[in-house]
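Exercise 7b. Backbone tokens:
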């Protein structure tokens, strides 16, 4: 069994057996990242493969620190780049016309299971889902999100609030349908 440091060192030397070990070590977690940013398995796989190519081609630049964080950042950035490239094909909100809104009072995340939350997140409109994932799941702040997506910081805040409100409504519909059964 190799340590993460040994696997990274082997990848820096371009050894395919170590690249395979790195792939096995992170493929499940990174596919989950890709899935959160897409609507289809096909899109997620496309981002997943592109991001792993970037990891392997840039691993020589890795200087130390939290390796998983370094890898995750590549995957998130690849997903965001994919979003930017394909935004014109999506039914997208006009960010310049978004109003400020106040956040929902209830914290919807604490009310539902992880599986239910992921299913509801995948049903969110693209803009809400992207901001929600970056803020809530990945831990970026609104300034960072605004820079990444080339939007106003207020738009990020508004989209998060609206996304949480959307999730709350979806959860209420889910609760009503479960109680009706």
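Sequence design result:
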């Amino acid at each position: 069994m190799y340590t993460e440091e040994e696997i990274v060192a082997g990848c820096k030397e371009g050894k395919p057996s170590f690249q395979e070990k790195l792939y096995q070590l992170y493929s499940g977690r990174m596919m989950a990242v890709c899935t959160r940013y897409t609507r289809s398995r096909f899109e997620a796989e496309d981002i997943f493969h592109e991001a792993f190519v970037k990891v392997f081609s840039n691993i020589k630049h890795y200087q130390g620190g939290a390796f998983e964080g370094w890898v995750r950042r590549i995957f998130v950035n690849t997903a965001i780049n994919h979003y930017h490239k394909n935004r014109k094909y999506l039914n997208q909100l006009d960010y310049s016309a978004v109003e400020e809104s106040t956040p929902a009072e209830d914290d919807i995340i604490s009310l539902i299971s992880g599986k239910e939350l992921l299913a509801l997140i995948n049903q969110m409109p693209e803009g809400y889902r992207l901001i929600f994932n970056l803020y809530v799941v990945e831990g970026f702040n609104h300034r960072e999100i605004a820079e990444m997506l080339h939007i106003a910081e207020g738009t990020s805040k508004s989209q998060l609030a609206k996304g949480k409100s959307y999730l709350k409504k979806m959860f209420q519909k889910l609760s009503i349908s479960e109680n009706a059964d």
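Instructor comment: Residues 9 and 15 are 9 Å apart (CA to CA). Confidence is low (pLDDT under 50) at residues 90-106.
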